[in-house]
Amino acid sequence: RKLRRVPDGVDRAYGPGRPLFLNRSFINTLEVATADEGKGGLRGRWREDIRRHLQEVKSLAAAGETPEVAMFWDIENMRFPDEYRDPPAAMMKILKWCAGLLEAPITHAEAVEFTRYSSTPQTFWNGGYIEKEWILRKIGGVVHRAWPRVTERADEILLDRMRDHLDMMQNGTMAKKMLFVLSGDKGFWPLLQAAQRYGVTCCTLGKHEIGRYFPAGLDFSVTFQIPRLRTMTAFLTDKKMDLWRPPEEWKPEHGPRLWAPGEVNLVPAPHLEQDRRIMHDFINKSALRANPARFDGTYRRSFRLNMTLAQTLQLRLEGHQGHKFRFAGYLRHTENRFRQLTQSDREAIETALQQLSQLSPEDNAAVFWNWDDMQVGNAGAPQRELFARFVKFFEGFIGMPLKCLEAAFFVEPWEQKFGGTAQDWRYTVQKAGGFIHRIWPPKAEAGKTSLMKRVGALAREANLAREEGRSLEGIPRFVCVLAEDLIFDEQLRMAQKAGISGLWLGPEHHGIFYPSGTEAKIEISIPLWQHIREDLAMAMRNPFLPGASTPDCPLPVYSKQLVPADPNWGEPDKLQLASLQVTEEPTTSRIGIGIL
């Protein structure tokens, strides 16, 4: 009678006094403890009650209705050793071990982080010291923020969240789950005992090699003797042992498998994170908000890499004016960069959007690139692959295949062949099928003048084909000019009147769209050229594929990658670029562009 345990503060029946030595899982240990041989550790009414409980658990598992697990981790109390080689993988191994003990999937995990900041700065992620709370948030857990570091503050928040779960289970807004508490504090036990009476199974793992199992609907708990968590963590994170390797890799000399990995499917719920920070009145809490971080899904640029021309035009219709910033002393002001759209402009945009949505397979585009204004650095992918990525970017942004690319380079007269250096972009462009404009002497307007002559020749060829009743095959439907400025845009206006839509893209967030068949000029906002070339160099997926993670808006680590990584997504061997067969004629008219 002295060995039997009586909980403090509640009127409960006696429970088994001797702890059970943990086997592969809680359920497996209880099955052994209630065996007919009578040597498992449970006798009398405890064995009969546990047998009925195990029968209910088996019937639920047979029906495919195994309850999910909501985990509440008191990290301040139960800290695992630090792991720096692959912290998310190490934490997932620990969670899989816990799920294997419960024989139920862990779909929700909560913890508390003591921090003054309302978001995790990127500099913290880049540092060498990594907190457990950051890793749990990184793999899909819910981590609440609290400040200052007060005793039992984390326990209070976790208890509140456990009560919320019980209330939702009680009113039917949440399916019945199993509560799992990872903490060495005894203050959670009364709430777990109350949940047990409402038919919720609860489990705890704590310090001093003790764990408890609270069977649903019963009035006692079963104590387990568990391995030391530090020892278990060393086993789980040991790469040489690799306890979670596939069963076919286990050999007889390895001995029996002690633990079975469970299922961990954390459902991200960042909206459930609570801000329980308490600050002095003189502290501005908004000043403690750090810049977004790339690892948790909060980082994104205003103009994304996978924005299309149609989306940009739609933004203009919705009133986006292309804000630019001006500094006056210590104050930062914003003002509209673009003029208000007129009724004719809106009609031209709506017509262009309709045309972009009704393209035929024969429609194609041509790009005229002034390389001296908008260069590409040597970083990330190889040159052939990087150039092919730019082609894919132009195709995705415009919305039609690219059949011609012409680039203007400053080439000295005595240089006959390209490729004399390892980083010669002229050789890469030429080998990919692009046409090189050799410009000398190096004048700022020389490259743009040569490219615009080609645009004007296209416009004249399109007009001549219509007058003669010939097919427009070989003439692009769309022309795009990449340059710092156009100086004169008469050739783009000629193409616009000839039924060819034009587009000018500059390096500083702005461009101009010339809808075909109109006289409209639509100012648009585009990504910064420096960001485009940096992101395309590091991107591992085509940004225009649905669900692809991009460097300017990476998916959080816990999200499933819908598009697999492909370092060769540019496919340089499949490029089909060809030169335009048009007759050039010099132009003498000088009509200013007048953008800003």
What would your notes on this structure say?
With 596 residues, this protein is α/β, with parallel strands linked by helices. It contains 15 helices and 18 strands. It has helices at 26-33, 44-62, 87-102, 122-126, 132-138, 153-171, 189-197, 229-236, 309-317, 343-356, 383-398, 425-431, 446-468, 490-497, 529-538, and strands at residues 20-21, 69-73, 106-114, 142-147, 178-182, 202-205, 210-214, 222-225, 275-277, 323-328, 331-336, 365-370, 402-410, 435-439, 478-482, 501-505, 510-514, 522-525. A nine-stranded mixed β-sheet has the order 1-8-7-6-5-2-3-4-9, sandwiched between helices. Strands 14-13-12-15-16-17-18 form a seven-stranded mixed β-sheet, with helices on both faces. A hairpin with a 4-residue loop joins strand 16 (501-505) and strand 17 (510-514). The protein is elongated, with a radius of gyration of 33 Å. The termini are far apart. Residues 1-7, 323-335 and 586-596 have low confidence and may be disordered.
